[in-house]
Amino acid sequence: MERDTPPKSGKSAKGTTGKPKGKAAKPYQRPRGGPARPVSELVPQIGRAAFRRYGFVQSSVVTRWNEIVGEHHAKVCSPESIRFAPGEKSDGILQLVVLPAHAPLIQHVIPEIMERVNRFFGYRAVARVKMRQGAVKPPAAVEKRKAPPSLKPIPMELGDSLRDIGDPELRAVLESLARSVAQKEEDEST
Question: How confident is the model over 112-127, as pLDDT tens digits?
């Protein structure tokens, strides 16, 4: 007696695969990420994982350290990490790297540093500060700001009409435009 066994290739005795005919399978296309985005939008997302790994909830603590503690203290100490209890986002431990010669000074101003960091966060994020002596990378040199254009003199005939504008930013732009027009007229007359 002969048995009807299907061939080993997966096809039935009639030569079909068992799938319905009609629609061909589409090749897989990876979903697109949408329109192009500036790199400046991606950097915080890229850095977020690294900062969290080293204990920083907000990367702005590192980038704005000079503003938080002041220029003098930022030269001799820098934040290394903020550690929180599991599941908590308050009462953390701020780890500072301090130049060895300045450790006694920083020890005396720790309450002030804690207050400034907590004020930056807006809640009691730091309850303790630990210090480690080591090399501190000096803060990036901040170039001195130039005087805003509103402090430079503008032609008298244009000054009266611009004083009535309430928005300082708009007034500064219009004053700058007035100066460039006046300068262009002077250049053409000579």
Answer: 999 999 988 888 989 9
Q: What is the value of pTM for the model shown?
A: 0.47
**Lowest mean pLDDT segment, chosen from 43-47, 86-90, 169-173:** 43-47
| Calpha distance 122→7 (Å, rounded) | 73
Per-position DSSP letters for the chain, written without gaps between them: ----PPPTTS--TTS--SSPSSPPPPPP-PPP--S---HHHHHHHHHHHHHHHTT-S-THHHHTHHHHH-HHHHHHEEEEEEE--TT--SSEEEEEEE-GGGHHHHHHTHHHHHHHHHHHHTS--EEEEEEEE---PPPPPPPPPPPPGGGS---HHHHHHHTT---HHHHHHHHHHHHHHHHHHHHHH-
